[in-house]
Amino acid sequence: MNVGVVGSTGQAGSQMVAILEERGFPVERLELFASVRSAGSSVSFRGEGHVVADAASASYRGLDVVLMAAGGATSRELAPRIAAEGAIVVDNSSAWRSDPEVPLVVAEVNPGALESIPKGIVANPNCTTMVAMPVLKPLHDAAGLTAMVVATYQAVSGAGRAGVAELADQLGRTSSGVAALALDGGAVDHGGHSKFPAPIAHNVIPFAGNLVEDGSLETDEEQKYRNESRKILGIPGLRVSCTCVRVPVFTGHGAAITASFARPVSVAEATDLLGAASSVVLSDIPTPLSAAGRDPSLVGRLRVAEAVDNGLSMFVVGDNLRKGAALNAVQIAELLERG
């Protein structure tokens, strides 16, 4: 296939290029694109340098599939033009996820959604939602998921390189004397903050994303979790209450999930179902560090939840830059290539 990657110099885009090579994707020709600031730079693929073109002015004719990791505004402008020039666009932004004519796909969960791509665009889910889908799908198929209460623990890399830089800067400022100050009950000077609404180092912030101006007092991250879960799992009436929390972790999104089902699910049954599930690994104590650089979602702390009907609680974690973005996009391309 002739493949393009838009946003190829960014966090997710560079991972897409690396994973195309790592998985031996059948690339006949690779074309790389980015903003005008990065145009002219070179990215290595299979030992050769590929010059990055300006995404806004480039031609996409002759490409079979284009992976996009360039943000919602860019995608809304470019994706229809790229599709009109003949390529299937696999978009990593939030621009197309709620469009009823655009399939929202997790490769292991709902590949059948790729049977109809009327706009020539396929959407990649939000990285936080993505982590849980391979875990929830087999449980839903067996027992009928009806509702879930979720608290996410989202790494700073989910806010881009600026988020990573802000945490690193604050950790550097506070590396000496933090323990002594903590023992004495003193305040730590973290310097300024701009990417997050409060200092992120040595802290957790119960606010990830942007406040939605609809009176709900939810953030867009919280609404994405509800809306995307409904679409991917095919449960339009799924009840979801979500609180998205930013934590001082560089890579790896976690979620504490209490799920309610139409019938009881024992811990033993859930363990058997998840042990046989694709792209899921059972873990006694799943953590972001143990998930970093790995493809599957890790799930553990399975237990009966007494506060809800037919309830099951669990903790799920996955690499938000890998499966949460780049890997799933490549897996969608693999499904398209196989037809």
Structure in words:
The chain is an alpha/beta fold. 32% of the residues lie in helices and 24% in strands. Helix 2 (72-84) links the parallel strand 5 (65-68) and strand 6 (88-91). Helix 1 crosses helix 9 and helix 3 (127-143) runs parallel beside helix 6 (220-233). The strands form 2 sheets. It has a 7-stranded mixed sheet with strand order 3-4-2-1-5-6-7, with helices on both faces. It has 9 helices and 13 strands. It has helices at residues 11-22, 72-84, 127-143, 161-174, 178-184, 220-233, 267-275, 288-291, 322-338; strands at residues 2-6, 29-34, 42-45, 48-54, 65-68, 88-91, 121-123, 145-154, 239-246, 253-261, 280-282, 297-305, 311-318. The chain has 2 domains: 2-125 and 325-338, 3-Layer(aba) Sandwich (Rossmann fold), CATH 3.40.50.720; 129-320, Dihydrodipicolinate Reductase, domain 2, CATH 3.30.360.10.
Give a quick set of tags describing it.
339 residues; alpha/beta; Rossmann fold; Dihydrodipicolinate Reductase, domain 2; seven-stranded mixed beta sheet; six-stranded mixed beta sheet; 9 helices; 24% strand; globular
Q: What profile does the largest beta sheet have?
A: 7 strands, mixed
What is the number of beta strands?
A: 13
Instruction: Assign an overall shape.
Output: globular
CATH homologous superfamily title of the largest domain: Dihydrodipicolinate Reductase, domain 2
Indicate how many domains the architecture comprises. 2
- Residue fraction in strands: 15-25%
Backbone CA Rg: 20 Å
Overall pLDDT level: 94
Low-confidence stretches: none
Report the total helices.
9
Q: How do the SSEs run, as a string of H and E?
A: EHEEEEHEEHEHHHEEHEHEEH
Task: Report helical residue fraction.
Answer: 25-40%
CATH architecture type of the largest domain: 2-Layer Sandwich
CATH class wording of the largest domain: Alpha Beta
| Protein structure class | alpha/beta
Distance between the termini: 12 Å
Strand order of the largest sheet: 3-4-2-1-5-6-7
